[in-house]
Design brief:
Blueprint: H1 2-43, H2 46-57, H3 66-92, E1 97-99, E2 105-107, E3 113-116, E4 123-128, H4 152-165, E5 172-179, E6 186-193, E7 199-207, E8 211-220
Antiparallel strand pairs: 1-2, 3-4, 4-8, 5-6, 6-7, 7-8
Length: about 220
Amino acid sequence: MNNDVNPRSRAGSRAKRKKTNIVLNGLIGLVLILIIIVGYSIFASPGSDKASSKKNDNPISAEKSPQKKGKDNKKASKEVKQADQSSATAQQNGDSTTTGQDGSSQADTSQAVVSNGGSSPNVVKTIENPAWKPVGTTQSGSHTPVYDQSSTDWQEMLNAISYATGLDQSNMIVYFLGRDKSTANASVGTVYSKDKQQKYKVYIKWVDGQGWQPTKVEELSSLQ
C-alpha cells in the first residue's frame, strides 16, 4: 500500500513545482516587460525634458517681468514730467518759437500786432511781431546778401520767410526775393501757397552772427 501512495505523491509534487515554475517565469517576464516600457518612456524624449527644464528656469521669457514693467512705467512717467517741465520753463522764459508737426520752427503769434492795410492798396493787413528772432545761420564773416537760389543765403532767407508766415517751404512758391532798397542789409520777398490762397510780402533783415530776422509781414489780396 505504501508503494502505491509514494509514486502518486512524487508525481503530484512534480506537477505542483512545474506549475509554480510556470507562474514564476510568467511573473518574471511580465516584470521585464514593465521595466522595458518604463525605461522607454523615460529615455525616449530627452529633448523635451531639457526644453521643459529650460522653460521652468526662465518662466518669463516671452514677456517682461512685473518688476521690469514697473521700471519702464516709472521711466516713461519721468520723461513726460521732464517734458512738461521743459515746456513750462520755455513759457516762463518767453520762448518765441514753437515746433510744428513737421519739425520746422514757427513763430509765437501771441505778441503779434495786426493792423488793416499796409504799404499799398494790395495789402489786406500788416503783421509785426516783437517776438520774432533771427533764424540762425551757418555763415560767418562780413555778409552781403546773395540772391542765388543755390546759395546758403537764399535758403536761410526762405527759412526766415517760412518762420514768419507759418507757410511750409514744401507748399511755398517764391514770386520775388530781392534787396529791400529802403533798409541797409535787408531783403524783401513775395511768396504764396501752391493753391494761391495765402499770399505774403515779407520783410527781413540781417543780424550779424545770427542770421535773417523777419521784421514785417503783409498779407496780399493778389500777386502784382
